[in-house]
Amino acid sequence: MAEVNLLARLPKSQRNIQKRTEAQTPENIAISRQYGEAYFDGPREVGYGGYRYDGRWIPIAEDIVRHFKLKPDDRVLDVGCAKGFLVRDLMQVCPGLEAFGLDISEYALMHCEPKVVGRLHLGSADKLPFPDKSFNAVISLNTVHNFERADAVRAVREIERLAPGRGFIQIDSYRTPEQRDLFLSWVLTAKFHDYPAGWLKLFKEAGYTGDWYWTILE
Ligand SMILES: C[S@@+](CC[C@H](N)C(=O)[O-])C[C@H]1O[C@@H](n2cnc3c(N)ncnc32)[C@H](O)[C@@H]1O
C-alpha cells in the first residue's frame, strides 16, 4: 500500500470558486448527482461544463501502465470511467492491453469515445459485476467519494476483490482547514469526504491493500 500521485501530469482545471459557491443550491446538487447531460456537458455550475476528449489522460495512462507494469493481454478496469477517455488512452499507450470501464451514467456511456464502444459497463461501483481477482489492476478516479461512507467502504472492498493489492483510488480530500473550506465551497456530488487519516481508516475497514492519492483544491 502506498500513496502515489499517478495524476501528477494532469493539467489543473480552471475553477471559478465564487461562481460555483453561488450555484451550490439543492436543485443544482440534485441535478449534478444525476450524472446526466447537464453534469457532463451542461453549464459549469452543475458539473464539468463540457467533458470532451483532449488527450490529457495520455501521460496519466503512461504512468498507470508503468506503475502497475501492465503489458499486452493484461486486464485493467476504470471504475467511474465516464466517457472512457482513460480506457481509450490506456489501450493507446499499451497496445494489446485489455482495458474496460464501468460507470453509473448511461449518458456518459451513450456518448463515449468511439474507440471504447463495447468496453464500458453500466453499473455501480459498490457492486462490480466481475469475478474475484479478474483484473490485473483496478483504477478509480474521483468517484468513490460520491457514496455515503458505508457504501464507499463497499466500493473500496469491491476494488480490492477484483484486484487484490493492485488498486489505485483517487478521492477528494484536504490537509488543512483552509483546504477543507475551499473544497466545501466547490463540491457538488461528493457525499463523503475527509482528511487523509479518515480515508486511510476507511481503507483499513475495507481491507484495502492497493494504492491511493488525494484530489486537493489549493
Ligand atoms: C468526477 S467524475 C470522474 C470521471 C473520471 N474518472 C475522471 O476522473 O475524469 C465521477 C464519475 O463517477 C461516476 N459515478 C458516480 N457515482 C457512481 C457509482 N455509484 N458507480 C459508478 N460510477 C459512478 C459519474 O457518473 C462520473 O462519471
What order do the helices and strands come in, and which of them pair?
Layout: H1 17-23, H2 26-32, H3 37-41, H4 58-67, E1 75-79, H5 85-93, E2 98-103, H6 106-110, E3 120-122, E4 137-141, H7 149-162, E5 167-172, H8 177-184, H9 196-206, E6 211-215
Parallel strand pairs: 1-2, 1-4, 2-3, 4-5, 5-6
Helix pairs in contact: 4-5, 7-9
Bound molecules: S-adenosylmethionine.
S-adenosylmethionine is lined by residues 35, 80, 82, 103-105, 108, 124-125, 141-143, 146.
What does this protein structure show overall?
The structure is a single chain. This protein is an alpha/beta fold. Helices cover 35% and strands 14% of the residues. It is built from nine helices and six strands, in the order H-H-H-H-E-H-E-H-E-E-H-E-H-H-E. It has a six-stranded parallel sheet, sandwiched between helices. Helix 4 packs across helix 5 and helix 7 crosses helix 9. The longest helix has 14 residues. The protein is globular. The structure holds S-adenosylmethionine.
